[in-house]
Specification:
49% helix, six-stranded antiparallel β-sheet, 22 strands, Helix Hairpins, Beta-Lactamase, alpha+beta
Length: 654
């Protein structure tokens, strides 16, 4: 009986084992079947959406190509009478804009590339680098040479706003008489050409080199799938591609509910068997993550160069990191638990430090950070930059304040040295300017001194001849007037040689210009240079009169030096000063050699000069001084030859 019973037990055990495995196997087969069905259904839907996407993108590409080609044809048929008349050109432009094809601006260039008409008018070109309204010279030349339409590379005009140009040559009797330029804004072109039903399905974008997004039409609130389709956008070419990404289409609710119910019911059969094991595994995993996270954060805080300090709501120190201990020289054991006054507070700044400490604890500390003086354990006083933020506990309640501190002692020392060096450079530049004007100063002083000598000699002769005193007084008065004039010249030169402390005051820029012209008058006469000066509107600004005179003298001297090779009859300096949009706008134009485009970008760099005897600091100092007055300094070519330097200073509010 024993062997029989044993065999029965083995058979029963095998049978129950099979019954235990069967539900698991059935569950796996069921889940696999449902997953396969969902996968096949999803794949079929994706293939259908993919085919629709490709068809829609190709249709959109053909539609955009049609609009661009049609605009080329219309621009090529422009009437020359319209191109020569501003009103007719505006009517023609508005007609083109009415096609809703993304055109932003139309221009008419003659055969030499000069801008004759534009609608809307181009932006102000007075400041370098601040306007993109000039058509592409390369595209113009290529269109004129090939005799067919040429597109320019896209370029930005505003943040996230790109545009490109189409240059269409216009020929009459086999000769190119001009080029019509159409400027497309990519964002507007997509808005005009992409129909609403297409925008409801896809996010349509135009991409440039490197995948940069140049324009998009999309529903911001919708999510998109990761896959998409793109085609080459030619014209205009230049590596542009038309990219469409479909929006995520939600699945039918009934199918989702049915599939979810099946999966949930199947999952419940095994969930009860694994719930305890999952709980244990999850607990172990969380504990391991917490240990790892704590170790990582501790290592990160210990490796920081920024000092970290935590205080509770009563101001007691609860935590400091090693960087803070190195900064102040006290170990963490001596700092944790301390209350104000702290041992690292500087003795000479206790009141200031205590006041800012109380403000922080009261919740009124500076949001952008503040600077304080700290004292190291060795007694050295350092400058620190502190940012304080509320310390929030795990329950969401504030439990204290967390401060981050950076030692800025070396940085402040470097800033002070740089400021002193800048002041020395400005002072040196004034001395150089005075040295260069030595001959002019001598000429200015010789005239009043010679007049004084003449008047005094005449008065002596009159007195010797016993002429009445009343006849001698006019000669002596004229001598006094000439001596006063000589004194003014000396005082002007003396003010230029004194170090400036940037003491701003309300000054009349027109008067400063007259003073500078007075100092340069003698040298202008020697070099046969004429000048014209015109002023309009208010010219009061807030500034340092000595520094303003230094700028004017540097710019006037540069204008004189640039006209060394100019014929004497053309040596003219034109000075215009007027008020414009809250600024005093000063323009100094010369008829000299001009600025070589190859060196234009480096013109304001320190130690860069185009003069054999120059130091390369004049224009660099001028720009620094103008910017310190909240102004701007720029230059441009003079249409009559030479250069025009422009200074903008905010008008005084007093």
């Amino acid at each position: 009986m024993g062997p029989v019973v044993s065999n029965l037990n083995l058979e029963r055990t095998s049978r129950w084992r099979w019954l235990w495995v069967l539900p698991r196997l059935a569950f796996l087969l069921f889940v696999g079947g449902v997953a396969l069905l969902l996968w096949m259904s999803d794949r079929a839907d994706n293939e259908e959406r993919r085919a629709t996407l490709i068809s829609d993108v190709l249709w959109l590409e053909q539609n955009l190509r049609f609009h661009l080609t049609r605009n080329e044809e219309l621009l090529g048929r422009i009437d020359l009478a319209h191109a020569r008349n501003a009103r007719d050109f505006e009517v023609f432009s508005r007609t083109m804009f009415g096609f809703e094809s993304g055109l932003r601006q139309l221009m008419w260039l003659d055969s030499e590339g000069l801008l004759k008409q534009s609608h809307p008018s181009p932006m102000d070109q007075s400041l370098i680098g601040e306007s993109m309204a000039v058509p592409s010279t390369q595209s113009f030349r290529l269109a004129r040479a090939l005799g067919k339409s040429v597109y320019s590379a896209p370029y930005p005009v505003l943040p996230n706003d790109w545009q490109f140009e189409v240059h269409v040559p216009v020929s009459r009797e086999g000769k190119v008489v001009g080029v019509a330029v159409g400027i497309y804004r990519i964002r507007d072109m997509l808005g005009d050409s992409v129909p609403w039903w297409l925008a409801e399905r896809y996010r349509i974008s135009i991409l440039g080199d490197g995948g940069r997004v140049l324009g998009t039409r999309s529903r911001v609130e919708s999510t998109v799938d990761e896959d998409g389709y793109q085609v080459i956008f030619d014209p205009p070419g230049w590596g542009l591609t038309l990219h469409a990404v479909p929006y995520h289409a939600p699945r039918p609710l009934a199918g989702i509910l049915l599939s979810g119910a099946l999966v949930v019911l199947a999952t419940v059969m095994l969930w009860s068997l694994w719930i305890l094991r999952r709980h244990v595994v999850r607990r172990q995993s969380v504990e391991e993550q917490l240990r790892h996270e704590h170790s990582f954060r501790k290592a990160m805080e210990d490796s920081l160069d920024t000092g970290m300090r935590a205080r509770n709501l009563d101001g007691e120190i609860t935590y400091v990191n090693p960087a803070f201990c190195r900064m102040v020289g006290w170990p963490a054991e001596e700092l944790i638990g301390r209350r104000p006054p702290m041992p690292y507070w500087a003795d000479d700044y206790l009141d200031e430090t205590r006041a800012i400490h109380d403000r922080v604890l009261a919740g009124h500390g500076p949001v952008e950070g503040f600077e304080l003086k700290f004292k190291r354990r060795s007694g050295e006083v350092i400058d620190v930059l502190i940012h304080e933020a509320p310390l929030i506990g795990g329950d969401g309640e504030q439990v204290g304040w967390m401060g981050s501190m950076v030692d800025i002692t070396d940085r402040k020392r470097a800033e002070d040295q740089a400021r002193q060096q800048q002041e020395r450079l400005q002072f040196t530049a004034r001395l150089v300017a005075v040295g260069e004007m030595a001959s002019s100063i001598a000429h200015e002083l010789n005239q009043p001194l010679a007049a004084i000598s003449s008047y005094c000699t005449g008065a002596v002769n009159l007195l010797r001849n016993q002429v009445p005193a009343a006849d001698v007084v006019p000669a002596l008065e004229k001598a006094v007037e000439q001596s006063r004039r000589a004194g003014q010249v000396i005082r002007r030169i003396y003010s230029l040689t004194r170090p400036s402390e940037n003491n701003f005051e309300a000054i009349d820029l027109a008067e400063r210009i007259e003073v500078a012209l007075g100092l340069m008058e003698g040298e202008m006469r020697q070099r046969l240079v004429r000048h014209s000066y015109e002023t309009q509107g208010p010219t009061m600004i807030d500034g340092d009169p000595v520094l303003i005179e230094q700028i004017l003298l540097n710019l006037l001297r540069n204008a004189l030096d640039s006209m060394r090779d100019t014929p004497p009859e053309q040596r003219t300096i034109t000075i215009e000063l007027k008020a414009s949009d809250g600024y005093a706008a000063l323009a100094i134009a010369d008829r000299g050699c001009g600025i070589d485009p190859a060196v234009a970008d480096k013109l304001f760099d320190p130690l860069f000069t185009t003069k054999p005897e120059g130091m390369g600091m004049g224009l660099a100092i001028c720009r620094s001084v103008v910017e310190s007055h909240r102004g701007r300094l720029s230059f441009e070519d003079n249409p009559l030859g030479g250069s025009v330097f422009r200074c903008l200073f905010p008008l005084s509010e007093h």
